[in-house]
Amino acid sequence: DAWTQANNGGPYFSVGGLDRTGIIYEPLVAFGSYGGYVTGGSTISLGQNTGTLTLEEYQGSILKWQKRVDAGAWTDIANTAATYSEIPSSIGTWEYRAVVQEGTCPQAYSDPAIVIVLPPASVWTGNTDTDWFKATNWTQGVPVATQDATIPAAPLNQPHVSNVSEIANCDDLSIESGAVVTVATDGDLSVYGILSNATGNSGMIIKSDAGGTGSLIHNTAAVNATVERYINNWTAGNEDLGWHFLSSPVATQPIRPEFIPLGNPLPVEIDFYKWDEDHVAPGCIGCWINTKDDVGNWNTSFEDNMVVGRGYLMAYTAPYGNMAKEFSGQINVNDLTVTNQTYTTNSSHPGWHLMGNPFSSALDWTLGSWVKDNIGAIPQIWDEDAASYELIDNLGGDNSIIPAHNGFMVYTDVNNNNTLTIPADARVHDDHIWYKSYENETIRLLAHDLDKGLRQQTSIRENMASSIGFDLQYDSYFMAGYAPMFYSVSNDEAFALNTLPEIISSSIIPLSFITNGSLDFSIELETAPEELDIYLHDLKLDIISNLKTDPVYEFTSLSGDDPERFLLRFAPVGIEENKHSDDVSAWYNNEQLHVDLKTDECHKLMVFNSMGQLIHEEAISGQGLHTYAFKLPAGLYVGRILSNNGSATIKFYTGK
Fold first, then answer.
1. Is pLDDT above 70 for 580?
2. Which of 29, 104, 240, 393 is most buried (most C-beta within 10 Å)?
3. Is cis: bond before 257, omega within 30 of 0?
4. Which of 102, 58, 61, 92 is closest to 79 using CA atoms?
């Protein structure tokens, strides 16, 4: 018989279709209320309509709709239709859903549609002044990271981003034809959406001066801009200072005429080089290649345009320096990959290559998707204030920063089988002009040239995974600059960063020092783990100083001194620490050395010349003032007065 509700009792489900026997159906089975889902989610600006939101695949009657913003409480909407739209009342993440019920079954809720409501685009008016961060200069207030910004050409006051403590943000940034956005020397601008610049190179200007350089981070390719880099002259009387690493943030930057004038011969006041690790020239393998040929004309084998991702070394004297130079063109925003760098065994600096930051902002060596296959973990950068190379740390912090428009040296220990990718997601805004700061728990020593104001760092670190030899992932070889040469030694190799498997009280680390022609120096302990005692042993003068209690040790050095002059100790092993005695004071005046003993204890007086040679020794006893005539050749001398309670040291000059 035909199946009906009447002859089969109350159903627990309904079958749609004709009641016929002997026929196979594909029925719609309804188990009660089913909410389905809402389509039509979108991203809009405040004041715009959501567009049509449609309830799909539901079962039952629509009782109402509901909405909420930013995961707050749901509120009812008096709507029983399968579609809905409205203009949201505020910015935020809005959710819309329907409430459905089949008969007497429990109510069901649809999956919601999501509508993201962004602030309305803010249009620049310049009604007050040129300050990007002033709300009265915008139609909708200062833009935020989720808000579009439009810069028309009409306002006389065009926007300047200038704020040392705040980053200017927006979603899309539209620079209309004739408009100009200027990022000041202390300004940082991040564009998270699309950047369009209808004005061209002059529509986006990033400024630079002796006090700082502006920074721009965005992701839109082929955007034109003018990016400045301030370059100061050589320091008068000290030509070791004033050398710069340089790299281009734009795709095609001619070297001439912006950085070197056209015509021949090239000015003697300009030096401009690139580094080639395996270049062969008379007298060298691995050389700095000059833009000048042998007679001072343009070197025709040198590239006309700066290579993106390549660093250059350059210096100016007047009238070419102490001003900002301009990079003009399309700003680089894409990852840059360099492969198959050389390792030449007999090169002057085997395995070292001068790369360049290709972006209009700083880079963080520890952030983003860097690829460093067979690349050393510790690059180095030129510190022009110190006239020496500085480490780029792989532990994060200030010392992991590669400044904008700057070159940096990377190392590989294999020939051709290596890859370095400089990723756009490593870009950061940073206040470094050139590389200066350093802070971490590494043992960091600075050798200061007190005559010229130069310095050379050397660093030592502990890591159980390292070896006593060179480890690509932990160590960095020493490279000499113009500062005194100062480095640690392990396995007969010179290290700028020497990472050892352990540092214990009996550890002894050799430190080599070679003068750069100056006479007066100091070694300073800048940072160290708190738990370590650190002693500097001067083998020439046989003096041990506790650098934790007295972090600066002064000394003199002459050409021809043994480079293996210092040891770094972590306990005064075998030699008594150089304790200062309060029982004695000494001074030199009018060719006389005066020693004032506070006790009757026996003391020993020793006088050394600048070569470390002992030239006078005698015992002193008796409380009171003792005076000794020293008519010595002009030079530096060191007097030491020793007793069981410690020692006093005086450095004095004669013939001045």
1. no
2. 393
3. yes
4. 61
